Amino acid sequence: MFGGMIRYELRKAMPFYAPIMIIMIGYVLFRGRPLRGDDPMIMAMAIAQGWILSWAIFRDPENTRPFIFSRPFSRRRLFLVRWTSGLLIQAIGLAIIFLILITGLRSWLQIRLGSLYHPRVRWLELEALPSIGLFSILSYEVGMFFKLRAEVSPYRPKGLVRGIVQGLAIGLTALLLLDLFWGFVLSPWRIGLPIEIPPIPGGNPFPLIYIAVVSVLATVASILCYERMEVEG
Fold it and tell me: Which residues of 156-182 are buried (b: 16+ CB within 10 A; e: fewer)?
């Protein structure tokens, strides 16, 4: 049953996740200049990926919530199934990008397109992977919390208005997190460093600590919201 629920969540989210993933793969393959961890487009797509997943995973289309909540599982277990599904989808997407880079597919294509950088920068471009993963997780966790918090709010709007308000709140918060993450966690470690040094050095623990704290707090708060959600018939 647990595996079946995971598959259901994956099928529900993939129509929304696949387009942003295709766009990201296209960008990775055809970007003419070397990929970097501080590429604004990579950051923006990672944030969009996390936000879309948080909305797609925790939505109940066509009034399916009463049926799902009637299953013989606790609210907490249902939440963990959905939360894990979102993380799994992000891991799959990151693995695809990793394979594109590690197998040399991007480098091969860039050489065919006359790139002046490849194959010399092939391995340096792996620095983009941490940014994709970290910004996606940040956006996913924060987006999840805001969506579930809106569901239990006594002042929540209805219908299309609710969707617009949730989208704006999640988007603005994601941008705020990006600004905080870039300004206080990553940028100080870039000052005075050679350009070939990745923006997230392996010896710098602060990005991972930042991600871990936000993720834990958002997950715990989201569980509390999920356990208090109403079932509308």
Answer: eeeeeeeeeebeebbbebbeebbeebb
- pLDDT single digits (tens) 113-125: 998 888 889 888 9
CA distances from 132 to 7, 42, 61, 63, 219 (A): 24, 7, 28, 33, 20
Domain boundaries, the chain: 2-186+200-226
For residues 190 and 13, give the distance between their C-alpha atoms in angstroms, rounded to a whole number: 36
**Do the Cβ atoms of 107 and 30 come closer than 8 Å?**
no
Distance (Å, rounded) from C-alpha 128 to C-alpha 42? Answer: 8
Which pTM does this prediction carry? 0.78
User: What residues contact 181, with CB distance under 8 A and at least 6 apart?
Assistant: 134, 135, 138, 207, 210
pLDDT in tens, 5-43: 778 888 888 888 999 999 999 999 999 899 988 888 998
Note whether 78 and 66 are within 8 A (CB).
no
